[in-house]
Design goal:
Elements: E1 13-19, H1 22-38, E2 43-49, H2 52-55, H3 61-64, H4 72-79, E3 85-89, E4 101-106, E5 114-117, E6 132-135, H5 138-147, E7 152-155, H6 160-168, E8 174-178, H7 179-184, E9 191-194, E10 209-214, H8 218-224, H9 230-246, E11 254-261, E12 264-272, E13 279-286, H10 291-307, H11 310-322
Parallel strand pairs: 1-2, 1-3, 6-7, 6-8
Antiparallel strand pairs: 3-10, 4-10, 5-8, 5-9, 11-12, 12-13
Length: 327
């Protein structure tokens, strides 16, 4: 970090709101360590919280309110002044933030790929017909059903340790998790196979951490600015625009992943039906020197998917999700 870019009036105290899962606390500690390096005299505290998403474990996210369940309590802490910033895994952050909040900072990305964890098999292709694969993601489920219709896909909820425990007691032959979380917690040895994004396109923002703050705090945004990674930010903002433009939610199997190659940002997006029988795909590239160019790239890919009928899938799934249980 260049000291000349830092505020002349460094913060004396900062409070980070975080979920209390082991992975979420690792992420908060990671940000606290980075802030300590920038501002050695600053007292950085972590406010651990349990969210609704952590409490409801017997149903899939798409049936209980979506990704916002993981951030609402943290936003309440920002709103009432108990915390200054909240650290999120970006794939868990809704595409539209509530009024009064902003995503001020996006940190450099970890591995964005999906990972196979299994105690018996080295790949999905090695799983015998009828094997049970666990995932919490409709996106992963749809892509699994499309490529491996002979496998059983069953929901998998809970924090990372809970999911691994369910695998270890034999509930699943394999489970699919984000590689980034496993690597951050020192569990990379549990990964049997990393899935090529061409086969399992990551969720928008997967592998990246974002910092949310209350809007109207320019001094806080300035303090956090040195942690902002421009290339990661351009990539994930392009990805999030695909989902935002299509009205994507937890009810819709949707993936978007952008990578920098030869000075250009290459973005691919997919929308699928949950049964995997229909998978729409589009891609585009751009120099994306600015945030607006990255957003335009996202709109371009979303527009291509729209022309293929993505809105029909989104409307059908959103309508089904809105129907009362038993309707």
């Amino acid at each position: 970090m260049n000291p000349e870019t830092l505020s002349a009036n460094p913060p004396s105290t900062l409070v980070i709101a975080s979920r209390e899962s082991r992975l979420a606390m690792w992420q908060a500690e990671h940000v606290r360590s980075a802030l300590h390096k920038l501002y050695p005299s600053c007292d950085v505290k972590i406010l651990g919280m349990t969210t609704r998403g952590d409490q409801i474990l017997d149903r899939t996210l798409s049936k209980v309110g979506g990704k916002g369940l993981f951030v609402k309590e943290l936003e309440n802490a920002l709103a009432d002044g108990r915390a200054d910033l909240a650290v999120h895994s970006l794939k868990d952050v809704p595409m539209q933030l509530p009024a009064g909040f902003e995503l001020s900072t996006i940190l450099e990305r970890e591995d964005a790929r999906d990972a196979i964890v299994s105690n018996q098999y080295d790949s999905l292709a090695a799983l015998p017909p009828g094997s049970v694969v666990g995932t919490s993601s409709l996106r992963r489920e749809a892509l699994l059903r499309a490529r491996y219709p002979h496998l059983q896909v069953k929901p998998l909820r809970g924090n990372l340790d809970t999911r691994l425990a369910k695998l270890d007691r034999g509930d699943y032959a394999a489970i699919i998790l984000a590689a980034a979380g496993l690597k951050r917690l020192g569990l990379a040895e549990r990964i049997r196979c990393l899935l090529d994004p061409a086969d399992s396109l990551p969720a928008a923002g997967q592998g990246a951490l974002g910092i949310e703050i209350r809007a109207g705090r320019p001094e806080l945004a300035e303090w956090l600015a040195p942690l902002h990674h421009l290339h990661t930010a351009a990539a994930v903002e392009a990805e999030r625009m695909v989902s935002r433009a299509l009205g994507g939610s937890c009810e819709v199997p949707l993936g978007a992943y952008a990578v920098w190659r030869d000075g250009a940002l290459h973005l691919r997006g997919i929308v699928a039906t949950p049964d995997g029988k229909r998978v729409l795909s589009a891609q585009a590239s751009s120099p994306a020197e600015t945030l607006e160019r990255a957003l335009e790239l996202g709109r371009d890919v979303a527009g291509q998917l729209e022309q293929q009928g993505a809105f029909d899938i989104v409307r059908e799934l959103s309508s089904a999700a809105d129907k009362p249980t038993g309707a």
